[in-house]
């Protein structure tokens, strides 16, 4: 098995003013030309779930109400996974190029969560026009914009 070294480029800051990505000073230059992209893909570390026990859980007992009785971790967006890496597409509200702070609309990460990478969201590479999903989740919103209004609490068994 090969091991890789991954370093955080910054962290999530969630406070009363909103959600922010705060970059380490040495990575601020990497923000050049990011303006104009309405959304970015944020790759982050599920740091609150990074331990040997959760890295070895490969199946979950029906995490979603309409899902099969047992579901493989790779068929979930669970933080419990062999490598606790997460990917979230987020809307960019503002970028402070001097301080290295990106204000975002929302992210499903906790305050202080390490950020591994940022990539621009580009429809030519990131959008699938007609994606297929299993029947048990086919009623979920069809886009990020609709997800904010969806009652996600009714979908989970936890």
From TrEMBL:
Pfam families: TrmO_N
GO molecular function, one term: methyltransferase activity
InterPro entries attached to this UniProt entry: TrmO-like_N, YaeB-like
Domain TsaA-like residue range list: 6-130
Keyword Membrane: no
Keywords: Methyltransferase, Transferase
Domain of life: Bacteria
Keyword Acyltransferase among record annotations: no
GO BP, one annotated term: methylation
Protein's name according to its UniProt entry: SAM-dependent methyltransferase
Organism taxonomic ancestry: Bacteria, Bacillati, Bacillota, Clostridia, Eubacteriales
